[in-house]
Write a structure and sequence with these properties.
By secondary structure, this protein is mostly helical. 69% of the residues lie in helices and 0% in strands.
Length: 295
């Protein structure tokens, strides 16, 4: 297929869905992740395991594809915001039918917005522009959203922290200014891809007010998680012997409070999605394209 045939909503949706699902699977397979499900164990989760998480990610492929197709080269307006929200709610139901738990509810929000934004600018634009447009879309109120209490709204009422919603509305600053730069720095230093992704995750835990931690463990758990993560950074990161030992200490702290940094994991998946989008965009401009899955 030539470049002109890329001007297609279905191709756009399928490609972005593939990038998003891959990002979710790459995030869950990253090992060892403190307090989170990985190939080694289930962290602070008694009801989850890696097989369930991968099945959940795969169940979202049609949802992500539908969001990408719906947003393809559309204006980032109120109508689009409500359209992708509706698709996302249907996707949540499909996910629950597949795994009987809300494994990736936060990821549907973050990745759904980024997919929609990437589709608006499809077939190419920089990660910063995608993040900024995602923030613009998120800023429109979903007038059709059900008036239901969620973990996020409960945290906001108790602590005044908006969490994922504010992150999105501001254009994913912790993804753009923390996670992606951490990935790039680690790769430039010659770290392995596993170490680079762990560096990005630790930076996120250290800097965000993770509402998943707050919901289950309160402010004491959040402060402890941030303190232990910053210690890893001060010791030179996970690629150093002392930093690796401190990573184990962070794991024990999270298990002590029985909390999981799920918000940080969602933003890591968002960073991996944008990273893969960026690499795809470079290849789009530098290589002849015959099939969409070659990029």
């Amino acid at each position: 297929m030539g470049r002109t045939q890329w001007n297609n909503a279905e191709v756009c949706g399928e490609m972005l869905a593939e990038l998003a699902v891959n990002a979710l699977i790459e995030e869950v397979e990253l090992t060892p992740k403190p307090g989170l499900v990985d190939r080694k164990n289930s962290g602070a989760h008694q009801d989850l395991n890696i097989s369930l998480m991968i099945r959940s990610a795969n169940s979202l492929k049609t949802t992500f594809a539908a969001i990408g197709s719906a947003a393809f080269q559309q204006d980032p307006n109120h109508e689009l915001r409500e359209k992708i929200a509706y698709i996302g709610r249907i996707g949540e139901k499909k996910m629950f039918e597949a795994v009987a738990t809300n494994t990736h509810k936060g990821a549907i929000w973050a990745l759904g917005l980024l997919i929609a934004s990437a589709a608006v600018h499809f077939p190419g634009s920089g990660a910063k522009k995608v993040a900024d447009t995602a923030g613009k879309i998120a800023s429109f109120k979903d007038r059709k959203a059900p008036n239901a209490s969620t973990n996020g709204t409960n945290v906001y009422r108790r602590y005044g922290i908006k969490g994922a919603r504010e992150e999105a509305e501001k254009g994913f600053p912790h993804v753009m200014d923390i996670a992606l730069p951490a990935l790039i720095r680690a790769r430039q230093k010659g770290l392995s891809e596993t170490e680079a992704r762990l560096e990005a995750l630790i930076q996120l835990i250290a800097h965000i007010d993770d509402t998943c931690i707050l919901h289950r463990g309160g402010m004491a758990a959040l402060n402890a998680a941030k303190h232990k993560s910053k210690l890893i950074i001060q010791l030179g990161g996970v690629s150093t012997a002392n930093g690796w030992q401190a990573l184990s200490q962070l794991e024990q702290t999270l298990l002590y409070y029985n909390v999981s940094p799920g918000g940080s994991a969602d933003l890591l998946a968002a960073a991996l999605f944008l990273d893969s989008w960026k690499r795809r965009e470079v290849k789009y401009h530098t290589q002849p394209l015959n099939k969409y899955h070659e990029v």
